[in-house]
Structures are given as structure tokens and as C-alpha cells.
Amino acid sequence: MAYREIYARQAAEQNVRPLTGPPYSPSNAALGGVPTVGLDVPITVVFMIFFMTGAVGHMTVLQLNRRKGHKFLMSGLMFGFCMARITTCVMRIVWATRPTNVRIAIAAGIFVAAGVLLLFVVNLIFAQRIIRASHPHSGWKPLFSWIFKVCYIIIVLTLLLIISFTVLSFYTLDHNLLRISRDITLYAGTWNAFVSFLPIPLIIGGLIVPRKTRVEKFGSGRFRTKVTILLAAAFLLCLGASFRAGTNYLPSHPRTSPGWYQSKACFYIFNFTIDLTVVLFYLIVRVDRRFHVPDGSKGPGDYLGSRTSNKEMNGVHGEPARRIMTEEEVFDDEPQSDDSKEKHQVQDEEKTSQGTLSEAA
User: Most CB atoms within 10 A, among 37, 79, 190, 229?
Assistant: First the structure.
């Protein structure tokens, strides 16, 4: 009973009507606040339509590629993310019509936090493929592969942890458990921000470190375009994750007087807008073609469709070739081949001879 009395007194001081429970309605403001029918429902419906478009687009791409034998599971992951965001929109619309229903608020909050993790995983997979293409000897080492696997495991465990303690925080008034729940929230937000940022240093580091072999081109399009696409998407996702993590560390505000960083504008910009931009961006640039690799790739040379020769992969004495790379080599913009150069030289000689004959005439 002591916890109920303390909660009731705090609610009275903050001019918030205490609700019976459990689950208990939180007394502090959250990002976006409680949705309203007049403002949030129309905005949420628009976002839901766009996420439906993204879901249809990625599923269509997945099915068309499957019929062609073109395996690209990331289209399925992005379809799953769009479906999670559609569910989030539905939950927020229902919450707006039932603002005192704490259970709906719990479900909506969990879906907001959980869905974006699928995009983080997609970016990590793309980053791993770029590293393996630019540094096949290092990128295919078991240690490097296990680092990514451990990262995926931590992502899943963190998700389960945040879901459990988020639900617990609504079903208890114990200050110690609420403190632990807040610590878990801070950890999860910080970890998600780190995961969203991770592809950026991986890609930049892969470009800075001198390569021992040529880039193993995979998919369609130029290598530098792949790098630009991934860096742009990672920057946007990192911006949203960093904002959400940062606001968790700021002082809490009562529900009746939220901070500017807890406004509805910040919620829709740093959640739905950024997520939708990345989803549609990946659909428009056709990442299913650009980041596709041959099935069964297990080591250096597999991205090329066949093993490269030892002469190409290594130096003269069997050691990896070490040299300063040109800009074209860094971004896989191959210089002209010998045949192409010889062809242009013949054309130049013909033009010169024609000019000489015209002058003699």
C-alpha cells in the first residue's frame, strides 16, 4: 500500500489523475506523448499508407527475384519491418481512441522501439558484404564473421530485455525495480545507437586500410555507389537512434509539461520519417540488385562467381601484393584495359594519317 500512496501523492502534485492498476499509467512524459484523435490519427494514417506501399514494394521485389532464382532475403527483412511499422501505426490509432488504456500504450511503445532493429541488421549485412568485397582475406576470417554473429545475438537479447522490463515498469511501483528498468532503457538505447553507427566506421575503415587484392565486385552498379548508399542510410538511422538515446539521459518531465525533445514533431521526425525514408530509398535504388551476392559464398573469390587465380590474389612470390592504391582502385573504377587502350591508339593513328593526307592534297 505504501507504493500506491506515494504514487497517488506524486500524481496529485503533478496534477495527473492516478489510474487504478496494475498496469499503472506513468507519471512522466514520453517521446510523442499520448496520441490524440484530432492530430495524431491523420498523421499516423498517412504514415501507415506509406509503410504499406513500402511493404508491397519489397514483397513484390522479393517474389519476382524468387521466381528468377535471385535470392535476396533482405527484401523480406524490410517487408517485415514495414509490417511492424504498420502494426505500430494501428496501435497508436487505437491508443488515441482509448487514451486511458495502459495495455495498448505498452504494446504501442514496444512496437516503436522494436521494429527499427530489422533495419540495423540489414545495414550490418550490407557492411559485411562491402568489407568482404574490399578485403576478402580479412573479411572472410572466422573471427570477423563471429563478431557479426555475436552482435546479432546481443541485438536479440537486448530486445527481449527491453520488452520484459518495459512491461515490468508498468506493473510495479517498487522504486528499485523502476530504477533497474530505467537503467535497462538507457543501456538498450545506447546499444541501439552504437549498432546503427557501426556500419559507418566499418565502411570508412575498409576504404582507408590499404587492400591486398582488387575489389571483388558483387551485384550491379559501381562500388562507390554502394558505399554512398549504405553510408547515407546508416547516417539517417544513427541520427534517429542517437536522438532517442540522448533524450533518455535528459531530465524527465511530467506528462502535463513535456520537454521540447518529447514533442510530437520530434517523435514523427526521428521515428517514422527517418524509417520511411530509408525503406523507400532502398526500394528506389534497388538494393536487391546492388548488394546481391552469389548463393553459397563462403570465402575469397566467391563474390566473383568463381575462385580467382593465385596470380591475381597474391604477389609474385605468393605473398599478398602491397602497393599504394589509386582513386579508381579504391572505388573499383577500373582503368581502361590493354585492348581498349590499343583500340584508341589505332583510332588516333588513323585520324593523324587522314589529317596528313588532307594537308598533302
Answer: 79
